[in-house]
Amino acid sequence: MIEYETSDGPVVRVGRPGPQPVHLLFSEPSRPYGDDPTLDFLVRASGEWVSIETSVRTLHGDGLDAFLATLAEDFRGWEGSRTWRSLEHDLTLSAEHRSSGYTHLTWGIHDRPPAEEWHFETTTVHAAGEDMRNLAAEMHTFLTTPVE
Length: 148
Fold this sequence. Notes:
five-stranded antiparallel sheet, globular, alpha+beta
């Protein structure tokens, strides 16, 4: 679900908030070099036993919204897994379509180079088709909203 916070711009929530499931928040998009294609944002994983965040660096979002849109368009399924990663590999995504009609997205949040001391993964489950289309549209809005 996309939300708008007054000072920090749009926020995309992936997964269900609650005491046990882990959900992700994408927030604080910024262009650190003005009109340069570099787009940074914060990704935070939160749940009962975890709270972790990192800054993600991309070039125009590195096509994350387009990647999610292709998953939505292939709602009938595909074989194996499909993968995506950000410019500096601080955010990764692996997608699998299950016969139950759901898409399993495994999000990887990584320590930034050169340290790369830690790595966290969580999986969110989405109904193929409309649920994935909504996520792709929300991510597109998040990545393309003008930021200061």
